Amino acid sequence: MTLAICFDDVTAAAARLRGHAHRTPVLRSATVDALTGAQVFFKAENFQRMGAFKFRGAFNALAQFSEAQRERGVIAFSSGNHAQAVALSARLLGMPSVIVMPQDAPALKVAATRGYQAGDARSEVILYDRYTQDREAIGRELAQSRGMTLIPPFDHPHVMAGQGTAALELFEQVAEQGADGADGHAVPPLDALLVCVGGGGLISGCATVAKHLNPAMQVYGVEPEAGNDTQQSLARGEIVRIATPRTIADGAQTEASGQLTFPVIQALVDGIVTVSDAELAKTMHLLAERMKIVVEPTGALAAAALLQAAPGLPDLRDQRVGVIISGGNVDLQRFAQLVSSVA
Ligand SMILES: *Cc1c(COP(=O)(O)O)cnc(C)c1O
To 10 degrees, what angle do helices 81-92 and 54-62 make? Predict the structure, then answer.
């Protein structure tokens, strides 16, 4: 069976994103290296435009719209980072966007999305009641009546390829840092890569790049303990659907991986491990205190797995490990509450 994306799709996405997405920094921490015994390279997508890697996939998808599609615009359902990513990408590309969000979405997120739409009278946020209305039906109806193109948050080849550019950049940056090394020799590629998993868009793109450049690189996904649908799916050999998980990692509250992302995960990912909400809060605290960065709970999943040596991870001591920090969009009050819950 052929997979939805290949390495060339990611390099093509990187070319489309050039000059539009930020080349986010790769951060090191002597404290983290000492705690883990590894050499850790953090790809800081909390510094990406709109605050998360989601901009990469959304922009890559919208940039490939035909003239007719651009005219009509894009529609997305999301109360999270995908909403902001689509709204911002649409504005940059001069097309209208309609974002469908639940009525009880955080006011801050609704406001941020409307902010990205400002200046385009054709764009709007449509709120629905998640208890009485069917968002799929709302979306289909809108897509049909207005002729808009629906872009899903993860299960789309252009979205998956766009997200893979985060890993492509990380590997380039690690190689550049190595080239500055004292002996001037090329550094070995990373031994392992840790990536958070919601619907699997990010990890499918990143694993595609990792295994192409270095088939020996170990790629591990990280899910919240309460929402380990992908871990269950890998064990079962088919997509397992769970009830909406209760976790502070709101970006990974997906019920199932995608029809396109799961086969890529099955083929290329070495394993999935989980971390608890308490471990996430502890990791957010450490990243803030030691590295001075604000990371949202979902964004801390991969770092938490490494720092807590999550069961199922191989021994990563003396290894060169890439860790994707996926986003930094968290209400500051909530952030303060979470990091102060840590003893
Ligand atoms: C969407 C999101 C994820 C999960 O990404 P998938 O592609 O759905 O696996 C992780 N972290 C953040 C910050 C996100 O916004």
Answer: 40
Q: What is the pLDDT of residues 188-205, one digit of tens each?
A: 579 999 999 999 999 999
Q: Where are the domains of the chain?
A: 7-52+156-340, 55-150
Report how far apart, in Å, the C-alpha atoms of 181 and of each of 99, 174, 175, 177 are: 47, 11, 10, 7
DSSP secondary structure of 87-104: HHHHHHTT--EEEEEETT
Q: Considering only the top CATH level, what class is 7-52+156-340? A: alpha beta
Q: Which residues pair with 100 in a beta bridge?
A: 77, 126
Confirm or reject: Cβ of 199 under 6 Å from ligand 1: yes
Could you report the per-residue pLDDT of 103-142, keeping only the tens digit for each? 888 787 899 999 999 989 999 999 998 788 888 788 888 8
Q: Which residue has the tokens 């790049």?
A: 209
Q: In the CATH scheme, what is the code of domain 55-150?
A: 3.40.50.1100
Least confident of 58-67, 171-180, 208-217: 171-180
Report the catalytic residues. 54, 79
Which residue has 């871990």 as its token pair?
A: 231
Of all protein residues, whose CA lies closest to atom 4 belonging to ligand 1?
198
Q: Which atom of ligand 1 is nearest to the CA of 296?
A: 13
The predicted-structure confidence for 220-266, as pLDDT tens digits, reads as follows: 999 999 999 999 999 999 999 999 899 999 999 899 999 999 999 99
Hey, which residues does 193 pair with through a beta bridge? 219, 322
The pTM score is 0.96
Question: Which residue owns the Cα nearest ligand 1 atom 7?
Answer: 201
Sheet holding 74-77, edge to edge: 124-128, 97-102, 74-77, 149-150
Same-fold call for 7-52+156-340 versus 55-150: yes
The CB of 296 under 6 Å from ligand 1? The reply is: yes
Mean pLDDT within 163-187: 78
Cα distance between residue 218 and residue 258, in whole Å: 22
